[in-house]
């Protein structure tokens, strides 16, 4: 929902950052010195999007509904925008890898590797996806854990551990260069 309405988030963020009624202060947030400022317009927008998402889910919401804004986790509206623009950097390489596994195994040597390590391409896909969905949203790396921001932190933590995963070599053989690299290769 945030990405679908990113244009509105940008407008709200600009309004919050340029507000003459909401001053800011400098805090050492544990991630360096940051401009901490309340974000009432971004907060109103995101809480509305969260409510819409919860209603559309049609199932009980799992985790907290906390959205950090103007605190040590998300000091200001610009950092909020930056966090959400990182999502394609996380998901893009995962989706590309899973979508292109069949193409990868057209090479007989890579097919032999996948068969020896994972039995088949379906098992490789399931291993990657199950691992991401288990650890990409588990609250690791954040003291709040299950808040929205904590889930983004969990996903980043998952990306930082990919070289320790049994499927890392398959990612590399597919042309994966990293979560901040080009999505073209």
TrEMBL record:
Domain Non-canonical E2 ubiquitin-conjugating enzyme C-terminal: 2-181
InterPro entries assigned: E2_Ub-conjug_enz, E2_Ub-conjug_enz_C
Signal peptide extent: none
The name this protein goes by in its record: Non-canonical E2 ubiquitin-conjugating enzyme C-terminal domain-containing protein
């Amino acid at each position: 929902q945030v990405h679908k309405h990113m244009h509105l988030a940008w407008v709200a963020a600009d309004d919050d950052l340029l507000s003459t009624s909401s001053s800011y202060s400098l805090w050492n947030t544990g991630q360096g010195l940051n401009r901490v400022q309340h974000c009432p317009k971004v907060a109103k927008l995101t809480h509305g999007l969260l409510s819409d998402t919860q209603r559309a889910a049609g199932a009980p919401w799992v985790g907290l509904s906390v959205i950090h804004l103007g605190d040590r986790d998300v000091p200001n509206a610009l950092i909020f925008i930056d966090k959400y623009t990182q999502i394609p950097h996380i998901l893009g390489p995962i989706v590309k890898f899973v979508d292109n596994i069949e193409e990868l195994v057209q090479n007989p040597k890579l097919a032999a590797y996948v068969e020896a390590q994972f039995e088949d391409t379906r098992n490789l896909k399931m291993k990657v996806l199950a691992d991401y969905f288990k650890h990409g949203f588990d609250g690791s790396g954040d003291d709040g854990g299950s808040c929205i921001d904590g889930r983004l932190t969990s996903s980043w933590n998952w990306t930082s551990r990919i070289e320790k995963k049994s499927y890392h070599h398959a990612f590399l053989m597919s042309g994966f260069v990293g979560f901040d690299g080009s999505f073209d290769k």
